[in-house]
Design brief:
This protein is an all-beta fold and 118 residues long. It has no helices and ten strands. A hairpin with a 2-residue loop joins strand 1 and strand 2.
Length: 118
């Protein structure tokens, strides 16, 4: 998937899962209808360049959802995945420097683990 942002191409591609070095977050399952798990690394700044995204969401149904990577509040990269997918990783290249935030959709009652590495 390619997303153009301020004339800079940002590409999300599949990568092998690995341990997160930039930050991780676990969102426990909820019955309250919280459809997103969000990880904000403020005040940590990403130096720019290549960043890896790790997403693991519980579930065994083929519900399509997405993750979104923001730098300083502006979306720079995103991709779709199924709740029934195994843990997955993607790489976004040519990402500008700034404070990263990652969110991922999840079903009611599902837990999620998110990670950013650079």
């Amino acid at each position: 998937m390619t997303t153009a942002v301020a004339s800079t191409a940002v590409v999300a591609t599949l990568a092998a899962p690995a341990q997160a070095a930039g930050g991780t977050k676990y969102c426990p399952s909820t019955s309250g209808g919280e459809p997103w798990c969000t990880m904000d690394l403020y005040p940590t700044r990403f130096p720019g360049g290549t960043i890896s995204i790790d997403v693991d969401v519980s579930g065994n149904t083929p519900v399509l959802t997405r993750w979104n990577l923001y730098i300083d509040g502006g979306k720079v990269c995103s991709a779709e995945f199924l709740h029934s997918d195994p843990p997955r990783s993607w790489v976004c290249r040519n990402v500008r420097a700034g404070v990263p935030t990652l969110d991922a959709g999840r079903a009611i009652g599902a837990w999620a683990r998110l990670g950013l590495r650079w």
